[in-house]
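for the recovery benchmark. tokens below, seq after
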């Protein structure tokens, strides 16, 4: 299997995961999500930023649009989630909350998307084909 195909599959799977997390925040109600953010010491407006980044960025990853830029946004989001929320809970979490193992795996994958020249099949390939060939 070609690297381009594997990167495309990885990008789509990660995009779907972020879409699912974004949709979950909208289904809970952004006000409720903002309230939870506030209860753990994170400014409430960040709930809106996170929800929209997860949803829009996830869709962008699925179609392969501006992959590098959304990957950088996801790196910041995941670092924030790990450092501000999940680190005290531990790698595997506890009975109330998951640990940061998934966040760490996603961080490694989006880190690859941020630095690699291989973006896989998608809109980026069409937009930046000539630039990547140089």
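predicted aa per position
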């Amino acid at each position: 299997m070609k690297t381009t195909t594997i990167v495309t599959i990885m990008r789509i799977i990660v995009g779907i995961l972020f879409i699912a997390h974004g949709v979950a925040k909208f289904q809970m109600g952004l006000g409720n999500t903002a309230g939870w953010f506030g209860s753990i010491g994170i400014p409430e407006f960040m709930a809106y930023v996170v929800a929209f980044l997860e949803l829009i960025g996830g869709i962008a990853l699925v179609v392969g649009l501006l992959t590098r830029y959304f990957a950088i946004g996801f790196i910041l989001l995941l670092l924030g989630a790990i450092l501000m929320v999940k680190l005290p809970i531990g790698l595997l979490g506890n009975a109330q909350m998951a640990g940061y193992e998934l966040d760490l795996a996603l961080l490694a994958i989006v880190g690859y998307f941020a630095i690699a020249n291989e973006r896989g099949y998608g809109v980026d390939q069409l937009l930046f084909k000539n630039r990547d060939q140089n």
